């Protein structure tokens, strides 16, 4: 399982601590290392020797801005570059540098929340492993092999693979990972199923038959979206 290197670079220590702390508290189901730098010089030394998977880069530094820095230094094209700034007028200029996201310091909570949801989905698609963890254990499973995920009770998830796993976690904690995955549909709230293991999608009586003959009802609220996503899966 890959462990991602996530870097925060900002010469404002108070904000640097704030954004990294908020990120750590919300970034679930993925293994990562956090590095914090107060200067571009420290950042340069790090990127010269190590892989950077995600980089949160402040725009305004004392000696130069981050755009000037990016003009002079090659950041690996696999790095997810996130520009962080108080200057909202530079958003469009930042697109030149193939950024992954832009975070406004004045809207940190909402921008960071939206970023994290998307970033988790992208990294999991690239890696294809997902981590389920609670205070007692950690499961690392390949998404292709997961057949069904469902809530067993308020705080328990049941994961059906070649065998069954039960872990203490909420459905909400893993929802973003699978909601945006084109291989999974949610036929009813609290349950995801992998389209790869569907034997028959019965549109007339709103049921899904899995390859092991398990029958799963589709709730009215999720029928239209389930049909749409399954159709898109078949057309891939």
TrEMBL record:
PTM annotation (4-aspartylphosphate): residues: 58
Name the Gene3D superfamilies for this protein.
Answer: 3.40.50.2300, LytTr DNA-binding domain
User: GO terms for biological process?
Assistant: phosphorelay signal transduction system
Superkingdom of source: Bacteria
- Which keywords annotate this record? DNA-binding, Phosphoprotein
Any one GO molecular function term: DNA binding
SMART domains under this entry? Answer: LytTR
- Residues in coiled coil: none
Q: Which residues form the Response regulatory domain?
A: 5-120
UniProt-recorded name of the protein: DNA-binding response regulator, LytR/AlgR family
Organism whose genome encodes this protein: Thomasclavelia cocleata
């Amino acid at each position: 399982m890959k462990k991602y290197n996530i870097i925060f670079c900002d010469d404002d220590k108070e904000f640097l601590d704030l954004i990294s702390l908020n990120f750590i508290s919300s970034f679930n189901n993925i293994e990562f290392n956090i590095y914090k730098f107060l200067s571009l010089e420290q950042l340069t030394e790090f990127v010269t020797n190590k892989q950077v998977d995600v980089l949160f880069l402040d725009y305004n530094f004392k000696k130069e801005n981050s755009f000037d820095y990016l003009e002079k230094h090659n950041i690996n094209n696999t790095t997810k570059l996130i520009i962080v700034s108080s200057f909202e007028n530079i958003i469009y200029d930042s697109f030149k540098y193939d950024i992954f996201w832009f975070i406004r310091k004045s809207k940190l909570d909402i921008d960071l929340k939206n970023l994290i949801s998307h970033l988790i989905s992208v990294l999991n698609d690239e890696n294809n492993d997902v981590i389920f963890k609670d205070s007692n254990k950690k499961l690392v499973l390949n998404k292709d092999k997961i057949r069904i995920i469902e809530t067993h009770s308020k705080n328990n998830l049941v994961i059906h693979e070649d065998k069954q796993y039960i872990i203490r976690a909420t459905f909400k904690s893993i929802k973003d990972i699978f909601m945006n995955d084109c291989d999974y549909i949610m036929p009813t709230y609290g349950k995801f199923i992998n389209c790869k293991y569907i034997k028959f999608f019965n549109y007339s009586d709103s049921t899904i038959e899995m390859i092991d003959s398990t029958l799963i009802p589709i709730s009215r609220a999720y029928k239209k979206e389930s049909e749409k996503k399954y159709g898109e899966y078949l057309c891939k």
